[in-house]
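Batch job 17 of 40 flagged for manual review because the log was empty.
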Amino acid sequence: MTLLLPLLAFISGWGLASTPYIGHFRRFFSSILARFFIPFVIVYNMVYYQAGSLALMAFSFCSALLVYGYFVYVFKDRLLALCASYVNLAWLGFPFALAIFGHEISSAMIALYVGGSIFGNVCSVTAVSKAPQSFGVILKKVLKSPPVIALIIAALCRLIHLQDVPEPNWILQLYQFAKLGMIFTGMSVLGMWLKHTQILKQDLIHSLKVMLPKLVLGAIICSLTYYFIATPTMQNYIGLMFFLFCLPPAANIVAIETHYQGTGESARYIAAGTVVSIFMIAIFAVIWHFIAR
C-alpha cells in the first residue's frame, strides 16, 4: 500500500487533468493539503514531540540557506537560487519520503518540512522581487504561512499540557487518515500539473545542471553533519536528510513570483525540475533499498 498509493494518486490526478473541472480539483486538493492535512500532521507531531525535531528543523533551514547562498554566488540569479534551495517538501516530498522510508519517519519529515518552509517563506519574498521588502512585510508573510500557524497552535497545546492527557483513539485515527490524505492529494496535484506542462529538452538539461551541484552540496553538508554533529538524530535520519537535496523546486514559488513581479519564469524551472527530481528520487530509492537491507 505504501508504494501503490502514490502511484494510484498520480494516475488519478493525471486522469482528472483531462476533465473540464481540473481547476476545481487542483484548487480543492491543494487547499485541503495545505490547510488541513499538513497542518494537522504538524500539530500532532509537535504536540506529541519526539526528541531531535528541533535539530532537524535547524538542519533543514541552514542547509537551504547554504544552497541558496552558493547558487546566488555562482549563478548571480536569486530566482534560480530560490528554486534550488526552496524545495517541494509538501505535496511531493512527503509522499515519496513515506514510500521510501516508511510511515515511521513522518515526525522527522515534519521537522524538516517546517524548517524548509520557514526558510522559503522568509527568503522567497525578497528573492522574487526586485524591490526590497521591509522586515514587517516579511514577518507578516511568515506568520500567515500554514506551517507557522500550525506551530503556534502546537505550542499553545503544549502550554496547556495537552500532551499529558491520554490520547483519544479518534485522534490517532484522524492522524493516520491525514497522512494517507497527504500522500493522495499531493501526488494527485503533481499528476494534474505535469499533464498540461510543456517541458523542452533545454529545460531538462538546465534542471539537471542545477540538480547535480545541489546533490554534491547535499553530500558534503550531510557528511559534515554526520561526522561532526554526531547525535543519534542526525545519524539515524541521514538518508532522509540527503533526500531533501533530491527534491524539485517548491510549486508555490511561481505564485509568489507572479504576485510580486507579474512574471512566471520559475514555472519552467519547477516543471523541468520536477521531472528531473522524480528520476533522481527513483535512483536514490533503489540505492537506499540496497543500503538499508
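Reviewer: the log was empty due to a logging misconfiguration, but the result itself is present. The chain has a mean pLDDT of 84. Unflagging and moving on to job 18.
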